[in-house]
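User: Now give one protein:

AI:
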Amino acid sequence: MPQPPQPPDRPPSSPAGGGRGRDRRRKFLVVGAAVAALLATGAGVWAAVGYDGGRSDAGPRTRDTGRAGRHTDAVPTGPSGGTGTTSGRHGGESGPDPARRPGDARVLFRKPAPQAPSTGADIPGFWVMDGYVVKSVQNRVIAYGDHGEPKWTVKLRDSVCAVPESPTDGKVVIAYRGGGKDGCGRLALIDLDKGVKLWDRRAPYAAPSAPGAPTPGAATQGASTPNALNAPNAFTASGGDHLGMGLAQSGDLVGLSWYGGSAVLKVDDGRQVTPGAPGPGCGVDGFAGGRALLRAYSCDDGTAGLQRINTSTDEVSWTYRVRKGYKVSTIFSTAPVVVALADDHHKSGGVLALSDRGKRRSTLDLGKRSYQPECGLDLFGTKLGGCRGVAVSSDTLYLPTELTLTRDGRPSSEIHAFDLRTGERKWAAKVPGRMLFPLSVEGGDLIAYEEPTDRTAGSVVGIGTGGGRPRTLLRLPSATRVAEAGLASATRVYRNGVFYIASDRLTGSGAPEEMIMAFCR
């Protein structure tokens, strides 16, 4: 349905922010010619948010993790082949608790990572539940209790390759490798409360010949027709490969997007639903889930937009049309809605906040700074949600700035808080010589992670609604600093006074690696 004219959402242009590449443990989405260089080396990437699209003249210092691989051991094993955990001596490193300084956090448990091929391996998926956590690793989904004891295990046919950020009602749809030419072509619904697999089937992969037509060999049905962006007819039912599979879950719906197609399924039974096509000549770019399900699309005529899908009626609730020449490149939050725009050359179009009815609420005034949340490697542009290093409350967006160097050469970054009602910056917080990384908002306060340095372990800090100097909530022990700093990519969650670090990527270097570390007071 056509919308009434809205004020232009273009922010005033400003020069690029300064600074050098970020710490090698974090990943950026680079733009332009730098993509080819990163693909050649297998390096990680970052997402830069700024009116100029971020710097591309100096790439970040990144760990060379190589291509994603997979490992098919029967069970995840520690560095020595055992299934060990928790505190005590591990991989030649002294047990953390005996080396605790006064005020250091206590290690609840540590889980060693399984061995990985020399090319490395992705192990996405980590969810904090009530009294336990769940980690997907290779071809298993495993729950661990408060002290690291195994609670249950669900085995799959092959390695997990894509997961949504948030489960709903204790259930999560995951994607795993389909075998043969299909790299990420099977779906399974896991009950995270009971530790059982409720259904398992092939992902949709071809456009149906008619609405409701069945997809051969699958209980689910066909996907939306690929648009020009997604290389029409690149993958077909006879040899489709779900490259770049992205999942986003909200309520009883899960959105799937991959290079060549997309689909929306019911979580409960895997049945495909049809919220309606974005429009003639348009294709779906990706989804973001959580408190709401959003779908971004772009069209052959250079127009694009964002839609909210009602998870109760399976219909489009509203459509926001982006100014011509730009599209939604990143979805920071689905409720409230906060998105970043970019053009086909990856030049940033700013950050917008929308109302719950899909009207423009504000355009953030980013000024002359560049902001670099961790959004991961997304070569096909199908994973629009799930950026880390971003936190959102009902009226505030928290973004980390790009790295700068202090006078003595130490890397440093700030967290800036933006008012979603006005778009203006409210305050800035920093710790000289430390990298700050927003995690979440609890009780109105921002929870952030102070990354480790070459000499000091990381910390969890809190920042009040009015800003000010961060206060320490958990100071991680120095004995785990090397393991903490050595993670190629990780999910970090602070919940009820416990801080979890879960690896998303194994380097395959041959050195011991951690899969999960949990800390508390």
User: Anything to note?
Assistant: The CA atoms of residues 445 and 464 lie 5 Å apart. The radius of gyration is 22 Å. The mean pLDDT is 80. The chain has two helices and 36 strands.
